[in-house]
Amino acid sequence: MSTTTTTIETISKPNIGVYTNPEHNLWIEDSTPNLDSLKKSKGEDLPEGWITVAIKSTGICGSDIHFWHAGAIGPMIVEANHILGHESAGVVLATHPSVTHLQPGDRVAIEPGLICNSCEACLTGRYNGCEKMKFLSTPPIDGLLRRYVNHPAIWCHKIGDMSYENGALLEPLSVALAGMERSGVALGDSVLICGAGPIGLITLLCCQAAGACPIVITDLDEGRLKKAAELCPRAKTYQINTSLQAPEAAAEIIQAANGIKPAIALECTGVESSVSTAIHSVKFGGKVFVIGVGKPNMTLPFMRLSTQEIDLQFQYRYCNTWPRAIRLVSDGVIDMRQLVTHRFDIEDAVKAFETSGDVKSGAIKVMIQSEVDT
Questions:
Q1: Pair 98, 48: CB distance under 8 Å
Q2: Main-chain dihedrals φ then ψ at residue 347, nearest 5 degrees
Q3: 265 φ, ψ to 5°?
Q4: How far is the C-alpha of 116 from the C-alpha of 329, rounded, in Å?
């Protein structure tokens, strides 16, 4: 039940965070919890069930870029100074006496959603639909791109000797795993993956591990498709031709799969034209499962969906995925290390965001680290 101060006493760097605001500025500034409180803390002053974590690695998500550039995703609007980041792992510094399953020195990956535990979604195990969800990095809840954070221990998952970087990548892996489970991809299923960004590429790794075949993955960018071929040599790649209408692009996708129509399309872009192409690609009775986040309203080929009895489903974040994700990475079933193209220290976070948001940089996954793994 007791806490130790050994790790805490070595803290010397001030807490800083990576901020944006409604004017689309991006900067680094002091953050909470502050250095003095961390040095004095022995855990007793934390809320019951909470711990303090030193963040060691954080991935930049497309939503982070969107909040910076656009200031909003649907109804989630940046209305004040706001800390970004929700893909993080680190080391435990202190624990409240009520926390018994974690101790200072443990490596943990942080699940960023805080739930009410009382609404129907929470009580039925689908807590990603919590009516009172506080998801770190989604306004107005500050994110994890800081040196130190306080967080409920129940949402800090032990990762053993896994690298902090792999621990941070468990969050986007969780997105892909939720899509795999709800879409029902099975051994031998023909699958189309739309989009070869980080989520699309991790979904590709999952489909490969699940034994889907054939697999076709699409993107506008030739470099990302090259990376897809490296990750899964048996996958067919298709570079989107923006001059084609959805039915024409779908015909070429089917041709790339040797004439086999996808049973399931995993749409990872949220782009209207891509969703439409997926709908025109799948077979009668197939499924289009949309993982990507798109604009509030879309025009989609209703009669194609209707006459072909195509199921159109959607995903919002994830639930109950972290233990499975940890096992998959720990046992080497899923290896995401090749996705990381750039690494920056937290002091250079602005440059990291500029790199991640620049389509010409070749960035796939940009990581921000407080210190390199030892």
A1: yes
A2: -65, -20
A3: -110, 125
A4: 29
Three-state secondary structure call for residue 270: coil
The residue length of the chain stands at 374
3-state secondary structure 106-136: CEEEECCEECCCCCHHHHCCCHHHCCCCEEC
Helix (H) or strand (E) holding 215: strand 215-219
> What pLDDT digit, counting tens, does each position of 41-98 carry?
778 899 999 999 999 999 999 999 999 999 999 899 999 999 999 999 999 999 999 9
Give the residue carrying structure tokens 């689309």.
24
240-265 pLDDT, tens digit each: 999 999 999 999 999 999 999 999 99
Q: How far is the C-alpha of 361 from the C-alpha of 348, rounded, in Å?
A: 16
Interatomic CA distance for residues 291 and 285, integer angstroms? 19
Handedness of CA 185, 188, 191, 196 (dihedral sign): positive
88/53 Cα distance (integer angstroms) = 10
Q: How many CA atoms lie within 13 A of 320 on its CB side?
A: 11
- Residue 206's CB is within 10 A of a number of other CB atoms, namely 23
The runs of H, that is alpha helices, within the chain are 35-40, 62-69, 120-123, 164-168, 170-183, 198-210, 222-231, 246-256, 272-281, 302-307, 322-330, 349-356
Q: Name the DSSP class of 296.
A: S
If we measure between CA atoms, which residue out of 153, 55, 47, 167 comes closest to residue 100? 153
**Angle, alpha carbons 215-220-223 (nearest 5°):** 80
Assigned token pair, 9: 């006493």
| Higher per-residue confidence, 198 vs 11 | 198
User: Residue 211 belongs to what H/E stretch?
Assistant: none
- Beta-carbon contacts of 280 under 8 Å, excluding residues fewer than 6 positions away, are 246, 247, 249, 250, 301, 304
Going 230 to 232 to 235 to 238, the CA torsion angle's sign is: negative
